[in-house]
Amino acid sequence: VTSIGIYAFSGCSGLTSIEIPERVTSIGSRAFQYCSGLTSIKIPEGVTSIEDCTFRDCSGLISVEIPTSVTSIGGWAFEFCISLTSIEIPESVTSIGSCAFRFCNGLKDVYYTGTQEQWDAIYFDGRAFIYYDYTLHCNSSLERPTASPSPSPSAEPSATPSEQPSATPSATPSEQPSATPSATPSEKPSA
Q: Model confidence over 68-96: pLDDT tens digits?
């Protein structure tokens, strides 16, 4: 098996775990959509794209491992993954589709292994991250701490936010509003 077809496991709410063989290089659109019992997924190295709606509405999903071979995350790929609290996105990702993480209300931390400049250069098709506040950690991953301890105790922070590009994203609008999340949840699409 080198590919998982579209809708392959869609609606398998009783599926709680799956081991995808390393030789798999393609996972089709909606392959795991509505697998509400699925709690973790490790995407094999060699897969280059997470297609549209691949993990949509996997409400029990708490852990996702995205390999460095992935260059794009499709629209609605993780929409309604309400149990997801953090995710690591490798610097190899150059595009994130519309609403890819929409309604991931539990998502609080996005770890990006590249720099802030690389994050800003990602092509965002629409509003990939909307309806919640999260903290972007650049130059970071889930396995290591986001900040090093201060050499001496101090009541005041040792650096200003401008000296720490991997800190919380800016609250000011950017030229590409979908690339850097807003610190205020005031932007919601009209009905």
A: 999 999 999 999 999 999 999 999 999 99
